[in-house]
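User: Is it possible to get a 3D structure for a protein together with its bound compound? The compound here is alpha-D-glucopyranose. I've pasted both below.
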Amino acid sequence: MTPEPLTGEGADENWWRQAVVYQVYPRSFVDSDGDGLGDLRGIIARVPYLSSLGVDAIWLSPFYPSALADGGYDVDHYREVDPRLGTLDDFDDLVRALHEAGIRIFVDIVPNHSSNRHEWFQAALAAAPGSPERDRYHFRDGRGEHGELPPNDWPSHFGPSAWTRTTNPDGTPGQWYLHLFAPEQPDFNWDNQEVHDDFLHTLRFWSDRGVDGFRVDVAHALKKDMSEPYSPVPSIGIMSDYPIDGSHPLFDRDDVYEVYRAWRAVFDEYDPPRVAVAEATVPVERRVNYATRETLGQAFNFDLLGTPWRASAFRATIAHSLELAQSTGSSSTWTLSNHDIIRHASRYGLPEGTDLERWLLSNGTEPQGDAALGLRRARAATMLLLALPGSVYLYQGEELGLPEVADLPTEAIQDPIWIRDGGARKGRDGCRVPLPWQHDAPSFGFTTGTPHLPMPAWFAAYAADLQDGAAGSTLELYRSALSTRRRLQTAETLTWVELGDDVVAFTRDNGWLCIMNVGAEPITLPEGELVLASEAVTDGILPGDSTAWLRARP
Ligand code: GLC
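Assistant: Yes, that's possible. Here is the predicted structure of the complex:
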């Protein structure tokens, strides 16, 4: 069979609608040169692994030059590769290798802020207040007699204040600048035309190199109301507190969509058009605005992350998500893990209502959690996701059933949340520990050097080489599920099937039936050919906390 062309004539421009996208967090994937940081050559070497997993695309988290003040989301230069990760030639080789394997690539675009090492920010620091250089960011005079107080009390996501004071070239204290994240991440002023134009340049730069899509970081924060008197911002990062009329001074303002209309025009210069997915943590009703054909086309849907392990809750979340996606002509996205959240194999092993921040602070001991139950539920939930209409975003390592590393020694922690919040939150490093490839190699085959985050000894049991070809392993379950999905994927609709209070069940229009038993008691499967199950099925009995896929017998 000739593979479908990815670009040009005959290429499917709807490829993204039901794609399985695998997130590569490059510094923790594979290290090819022994410096302890994963790199592009490492990813190239694992293209066969990605192929055998059966993903349609990868999403590559930032690989740009960066001091890593925030895991690479502090970008020094948007059109270069971090020299520790490789070169632009390596990047081209990666795109080629992926495309030859029929895998597309999304790159992460970080438009809300640059790093403080970006040449524009350095130029701004060297320039005078009110200069064009400073206008690319948000510089303001401080309050108080000597400008010693921040311009307002807006908080940063990473705590505490969103403002940091600068030092003038002559050593005297200067103006303040806005950063919704770490001080090393100054926010761009999106009312500045140069900022706008530079990002269009960046989108074309990567699109010209063959990139198929973009994941847009903090897509909802670009436009801000910086007029005085400043509007109050009581909390940050708590979506349910955001107004739904576009009136928040910092997030999800109506004029942010104009930015993406201009991006859409760039995407449409290509054949097939480049695609995008928004990371917009906004109230669900507003998410749709990022996912229209005129804006970014698709948006992450994090609703399943907070869905309790109950059939009615799953059904309600799924139905609502599908409805929202359909209202814009987009397809829904589904995800259970990424580089910002505790891995779902661990979350599902914790009692409902566990305070996850406190659990991390206790090094994963309070409560202890049930690892076997967590993995079992994670496998079941993943099979549910993979049967749903829409696209699924997987995070590297979940195909190995990796749990969170909850007990990282505090001296190893890199996440700015830990430092900025004075140790009140441990942050996200526990899901960013490098992947174990070989159970008996130093650093489990991730690197010949010292991994940038320590890898615990118990990672050996999850190593890819032990799971490769092993019946019932999580890796083999993912492989089978992805290839089966590819074969059975059909129209973007589902029909609910009523099989009891503890069961989430639906069919797709070709008779593909997905049954997730969220109860602890086994259930009897209905008539049909068993295609795949997350746990062993004997005599037509599906155990608790597991999922089966069936097909109607011809
Ligand atoms: C996004 C990223 C996160 C990063 C933040 C600031 O939420 O996913 O990792 O810290 O943006 O760029």
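The radius of gyration is 24 Å. Residues 220 and 252 are 5 Å apart (CA to CA).
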